[in-house]
């Protein structure tokens, strides 16, 4: 055979290999697009389950200041005069009714409690771990009473019965620190 026949045969073989590799790359790209579409759907479902924006409790106004006691002498017939009955005590002021958000916060079961808090270093220790299927990245709101004081996310250090959580400093009430005894609840939807 001539050298030109070898060159032609080699060119045909190279074209066949190139065509096969191009077809295989297209099939792989289709699979990657389907996988990306699945991941996007999962992320959209996860974001739909999470609150749209962080929920914080507004600061309460200061309590009203009671007027100073009067220095006027008691009048006749007042309870300070001998032989007159004491007046009935006035009922304590009624507590403000709870908002729907506060009711929702109170109604949520506690997932864990803060055992130690190191807010200056940005982390806290909670009393659950691998025993409650805790995984890194899980997010929780921190509840104290009927209000939220912050948000935390589970870090990489997870023991059998305790774990370290990172304090999200972007979602805290000014002047309030996460303390031992605070409870972790699932993120609250507003």
TrEMBL record:
Biased composition (Pro residues): 60-72, 84-95
Keywords: Membrane, Transmembrane, Transmembrane helix
Residue spans crossing the bilayer: 6-23
Top-level taxon of origin: Bacteria
Keyword Membrane: yes
Region of interest (Disordered), residue spans: 56-96
Protein's name in the database: Uncharacterized protein
């Amino acid at each position: 055979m001539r050298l030109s026949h070898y060159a032609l045969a080699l060119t045909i073989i190279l074209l066949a290999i190139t065509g096969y590799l191009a077809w295989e790359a297209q099939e792989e790209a289709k699979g990657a697009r389907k996988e990306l579409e699945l991941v996007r759907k999962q992320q959209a479902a996860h974001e739909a389950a999470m609150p749209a924006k962080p929920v914080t409790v507004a600061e309460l106004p200061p309590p009203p200041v009671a007027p100073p006691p009067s220095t006027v002498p008691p009048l006749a017939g007042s309870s300070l005069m001998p032989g007159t009955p004491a007046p009935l005590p006035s009922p304590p002021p009624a507590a403000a009714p709870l908002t729907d958000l506060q009711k929702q916060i109170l109604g949520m079961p506690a997932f864990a409690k803060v055992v130690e808090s190191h807010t200056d270093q940005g982390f806290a220790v909670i009393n659950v771990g691998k025993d409650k299927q805790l995984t890194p990245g899980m997010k929780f709101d921190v509840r104290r009473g009927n209000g939220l004081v912050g948000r935390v996310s589970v870090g990489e250090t997870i023991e059998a019965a305790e774990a370290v959580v990172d304090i999200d400093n972007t979602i805290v009430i000014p002047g309030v620190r996460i303390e031992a005894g605070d409870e972790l609840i699932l993120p609250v939807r507003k």
